[in-house]
Write a structure and sequence with these properties.
The complex is a heterodimer of chains A (114) and B (112). Chain A is built from no helices and 11 strands. With 114 residues, chain A is mostly beta strands. In chain A, strands 2, 4, 5, 6, 9, 10 and 11 form a 7-stranded mixed sheet that branches. In chain A, strands 1-3-8-7 form a 4-stranded antiparallel sheet, with no helix packed on it. The N and C termini of chain A lie far apart (33 Å). By secondary structure, chain B is mainly β. In chain B, strands 2, 5, 6, 10, 11 and 12 form a 6-stranded mixed sheet that branches. The model of chain B has no long low-confidence stretch (mean pLDDT 93). The chains are: A mainly beta (114), B mainly beta (112). At the A-B interface, strand 4, strand 5, strand 9 and strand 10 of A face strand 5, strand 6, strand 10 and strand 11 of B.
Chain lengths: 114, 112
């Protein structure tokens, strides 16, 4: 596609429910990243994919968070048993290769846990 | 590991004032340096970049020079406009880490 696409753009969910956030990277980009941005804060790294494998999951805040990527394309970030502190904008970015290249960002998914 | 430190905001200026947002970094390997901008309600987009020492990145009147000796990449603009109001993120990316590292962001508010 022309750019990184994320869906949904907004998600309101009840505490304790599971949510899935989707990211479609730019075609041909092998590296994919998920970040979290809390209100008024910087970017918090969550997970990095190189192809379909995730060499670095160090940023996932708890075992309620998981992510996968299939076909070196679409990625899904899943948050189980959501908590209010999970409320944030979840940003996805992709790049042609990992390291030394610019990242292209999607518009983000604004998650609100009520 | 890699890290980026940028000045805290908000930075509040009048239109046509001179802007500097400081950014310093630590990195393994030889990083590429970036400034991203996030306009209200929008995603991050690349503003400018530099890939080697003494390179100057520029775009939309903004400039930043890759200073290896001081490990800095300060963002400057000679005359800001109201439309420049946004959050600016300094970032680096290196082959040693593979994960783009971002500063905390600096909010710029420009008044007419």
């Amino acid at each position: 596609g022309a750019g990184v696409s994320q869906s949904p753009s907004n998600k309101v969910t009840e505490k304790g429910k599971d949510v899935e956030l989707r990211c479609d990277p730019i075609s041909g980009h092998t590296a994919l990243y998920w970040y979290r941005q809390r209100l008024g804060q910087g970017l918090e790294f969550l997970i990095y994919f190189q192809g379909n494998s995730a060499p670095d999951k160090s940023g996932l805040p708890s075992d309620r968070f998981s992510a996968e990527r299939t076909g070196e394309s679409v990625s899904t970030l899943t948050i189980q048993r959501t908590q209010q502190e999970d409320s944030a904008v979840y940003l996805c970015a992709s790049s042609q290769i990992a390291g030394n290249t610019e990242a292209f960002f999607g518009q983000g998914t604004r998650l609100t846990v009520v | 590991g890699n890290s980026v430190t940028q000045m805290e905001g908000p930075v509040t200026l009048s239109e046509e004032a001179f802007l500097t947002i400081n950014c310093t970094y630590t990195a393994t390997g030889y990083p590429s340096l970036f400034w991203y901008v996030q306009y209200p309600g929008e995603g991050l987009q690349l503003l400018l970049k530099a890939t080697k020492a003494d390179d100057k990145g520029s775009n939309k009147g903004f400039e930043a020079t890759y200073r290896k000796e001081t490990t800095s990449f300060h963002l400057e603009k000679g005359s800001v406009q109201v439309s420049d109001s946004a959050v600016y993120f300094c970032a680096l990316s290196s082959g040693g880490s593979y994960i783009p590292t971002f500063g905390r962001g600096t909010s710029l508010i420009v008044h007419p």
